Amino acid sequence: METDNRTIILDFILLGISSQRECDTWLFAIFLIMYVITVLGNLVIILAIRRDHHLLHTPMYYFLSNLSLVDICFTSTTAPKMLAGEFSGKRRITYGGCLSQMYFFIAFGITDSFLLASMALDRYVAICRPLHYATTMRRHICQLLVTTSWLASHLHSLLHTLLMSRLSFCASNQVPHFFCDVFPLLKISCSNTALNTLVVHSEGAFIVNGALVVVGLSYARILMTILRIPSANGKKKTFSTCGSHLIVVSLFYGTVIWVYFQPSSSFSPKNDTLAAIMYTMVTPMLNPFIYTLRNDRMKEALRKLFRRK
């Protein structure tokens, strides 16, 4: 931490989604509805799977229940503070609160990424190595994948949070975003941010790209297996077991790569805010619908859940 006579910033002001204050009421209403749908939708998925003993012990749905839990946590890291700011017009956040928000945002985001990779691995084994599925995707293996996802993501987040905590913020306390994220904070720091940027583009890229490589290789093998199926109906039936997951992966990784793997000098608050809305609000809200609308087993689990009620 620098020890000169610069003013030490004790809190930040989140500039929010729009600079036009007359839009605040509409933005608050829209994002409140999205947040409620996200929490309720993912909560229903968790309850439906937890109450169906067979689904809970099926790897794909075990991962899905964990993904839904992470999606609730991920959205809740940013949405309540953003909604409070849009409603009251007060967008101030303490220095400690800002670093805490960044920590949990990164941790839950990376956990999401790892779980999506685990689900892709599950689909690869189910489609490409069906005879080995029961022995490969055993219960303790699935639990190990989930536990490792949580642990590795929090260690990754701790590294970036500690690196951020060593920076000084003296030129401005206005964060050009609706939550505390890495690049907006680096943009307003008056310290040398070369190490932070290097770690984002090296260690950060390795973590995210590592999960993305698992997804890519899994689906490459899945595609090769599907193409060898002689009948069109067989191809369609096999692809339908992983189509929902592929849609979610595309939505999530597409926006993450757009935001975090561009040069920090080309950071655009407007574009990155729109992308952040996609992966913090839109994708977690859509996930329950994507995974249930075309899934007969989830539909049946939901019917059982609501019949019990």
Automatic annotation (TrEMBL):
TM ranges: 26-49, 61-82, 102-121, 141-159, 206-227, 239-261, 273-293
Name the Pfam families for this protein.
7tm_4
Where in the cell does this protein reside? Cell membrane
Identify this protein by name. Olfactory receptor
Keyword entries, A-Z: Cell membrane, Disulfide bond, G-protein coupled receptor, Membrane, Olfaction, Receptor, Sensory transduction, Transducer, Transmembrane, Transmembrane helix
Which residue ranges does the record assign to the G-protein coupled receptors family 1 profile domain? Answer: 41-291
Instruction: Give the membrane topology, semicolon-separated if more than one.
Output: Multi-pass membrane protein
Predominant localisation class = membrane
- A single GO molecular function term of this UniProt record: olfactory receptor activity
Q: Which family does it belong to?
A: Belongs to the G-protein coupled receptor 1 family.
Which ranges of the sequence are coiled-coil?
none
Assigned GO CC terms: plasma membrane
Q: What is the lineage of its organism?
A: Eukaryota, Metazoa, Chordata, Craniata, Vertebrata
Give the protein's biological function: Odorant receptor.
Q: Which organism is it from?
A: Notechis scutatus
